[in-house]
Amino acid sequence: MQQRAIETRQMILEAAAEVFDRDGYSGATIAKIHQRAGVTQGALTFHFRTKLDLAHEVMNAQKNHFSLPPGEDGLQRLIDTTLLLAQELQTNMLLRVGVRLAVDQELIGIHDPTPYQMWVDEFKGQLSAAAARGELREHVDVEELAELLVGIYTGIQLFSQSASRRADLPERLVSFWRYCMGGFVPPHVQAEMTVDADQFTAAV
Fold it and tell me: Which of 6, 81, 108, 195 has the smallest count of CB within 10 Å of its CB?
């Protein structure tokens, strides 16, 4: 794809995300999106045939708009990833909209586990590194735990969205790690982990 076409496609995706964020999927229209992008409707439909195609693309691109926190792969980096995600969901519109669309799939008419599986794979990578470093209990199945953690995270962020528009999401995650980490992490490792809700505030 030529560079200009790539740039146009990206502008359309960003405009679509802004409209979805402001109006929701049901309130968004192709007209609003192409006006926000500053392109003709023909240019938009050249790249994306329908609003549903746009929503699908934005939903599955969410991980492209998030960078992992620094540090070696393992349990601490997984903890830090969940806390950084909490901050980014408040400030990173492209990530936030991708997550919102993934949650709203049933209403939109999409049935695609891809966005969840992307996070499962990322969490599994960190958990696999943690297991290799002796940071997990011996009985832990890292794939099963990764799927469980992604499901738990989804539920916590939805509750937080309803309660405070995610303002309290970092604190809710701290509570999760404090109460639940012992189920899959040995006590001496848990004592070494840092779970700080404020550590990424200045960075976003």
Answer: 6
Task: Kindly report, residue by residue over 151-198, the tens digit of the pLDDT.
Answer: 999 999 999 999 999 999 999 999 999 999 999 999 999 999 999 988
pTM assigned to the model: 0.88
So where are the chain's domains? 3-57, 62-203
Q: What is the CA radius of gyration of the chain?
A: 19
* CATH fold of 62-203: Tetracycline Repressor; domain 2 (1.10.357)
CATH number listed for the domain at residues 3-57: 1.10.10.60
